[in-house]
Design brief:
This protein is an alpha/beta fold and 324 residues long. It has twelve helices and ten strands. It has a single domain, classed as NADP-dependent oxidoreductase domain (TIM Barrel, Alpha-Beta Barrel). The chain is globular.
């Protein structure tokens, strides 16, 4: 089954279906990993203002670009408006900070990171009340924020606008104003988001899967707090069986399954060998029976890892996306 390596976007731009994730990476480690990823052939890089590593990513990218503007055009760089910026009057301020951090003339894709919002507290991306709950901004107007984001394109400093962590109702609502260029959400074997994926396809909105390998670091951290068990996707018997049959790594099988479903994926690794392996998924394909076996592992909402419970009290926000 031949799978295109890119999503074709408006204006002739192409978004590679395998990108490089940067969440939870320190600056020094990230810079080395990004340079290794560039050498391996990655051209899609995903960060966010809330990750606090835009500057490190920017340094590595600029080192690779050097004085060659053609190299910049090879890249597809994504960053995101943080929850504290989900107000029309703050969009430009946060965008300007991100593009300054990255040190680039333009950003290829700018995403609304979440549909919910925190209070804007300068210097504090995750403000909390004395009792440990989040300082939630309950006044969020998603439509107004989206319209303000759309105006950024007029500046020429951002080529495409998308959204992240929205549910189907929220995605449909914003699509009536203007369709996002992509939707980035958690998708992996245990949380396959089948209904959302099909709905997005009908709307012709590409989906980018974050945590496609299961985000073991986050899963382990949450398990330590909650006692809930999160299986290691790379160790699942079905995945290991299929990997052995194709002489591939379990991670390659998970990523191939994702793109064969018609999605993009942004795996994260700082290991040079695994960085190369995660991009090398275009020369094999999974059979119909293997796709069916992997599809049967879906646990729906029970399989979700990033449910934002690490932000106490955020579920009270009217736009919290996982109520049902």
């Amino acid at each position: 089954m031949s799978v295109p390596e890119y999503f074709e976007l408006n204006g002739g731009d192409r978004m590679p279906k395998i990108g490089f994730g940067t969440w939870q990476s320190s600056d020094e480690v990230l810079e080395k990993a990004v340079l290794a990823a560039l050498d391996a052939g990655y051209r899609h890089f995903d960060t966010a203002h809330a990750y606090e590593n835009e500057a490190a990513l920017g340094r590595a990218l600029r080192k690779w670009i050097g004085d060659d503007p053609a190299k910049r055009r090879e890249l597809f760089v994504v960053t995101k408006l943080p929850p504290g910026g989900n107000r029309p009057d703050l969009v430009r301020e946060y965008f300007d900070t991100s593009i300054r951090n990255l040190g680039l003339d333009y950003i290829d894709m700018y995403l609304m990171h979440t549909p919910f919002a925190f209070e804007h507290v300068p210097g504090d991306l995750h403000p909390k009340n004395p009792d440990g709950t989040m300082k939630v901004d309950y006044s969020t107007d998603l439509a107004a924020v989206w319209k303000t984001l759309l105006k950024l394109k007029e500046s020429g400093q951002v080529r495409h606008l998308g959204v992240s962590n929205l549910n189907l109702e929220q995605l449909t609502r914003l699509s009536k104003i203007e369709k996002p260029a992509c939707l980035q959400v958690e998708v992996h074997l245990l949380c396959q988001q089948k209904a959302l994926v099909e709905a997005a396809k009908k709307l012709s909105i590409p989906i980018v899967a974050y945590s496609p390998l299961g985000s073991k670091a986050l899963a382990d951290a949450l398990a330590a707090k909650t006692g809930r068990e999160y299986p290691d996707l790379l160790q699942l018997p079905v995945v290991k069986r299929i990997a052995e049959a194709h002489d591939r790594t379990p991670a390659q099988v998970l990523l191939r399954y994702t793109v064969q479903r018609g999605l993009a994926a942004i795996p994260k690794s700082t290991n040079p060998t695994r960085i190369k392996q995660n991009l090398s998924i275009w020369d094999f394909e999974l059979s119909d029976s293997e796709m069916k076996d992997l599809g049967a592992l879906d646990k729906g909402e029970e399989g979700r890892i990033c449910d934002f419970t690490f932000f106490p009290g955020i579920e009270k926000h009217a736009e919290f996306p996982f109520k049902n």
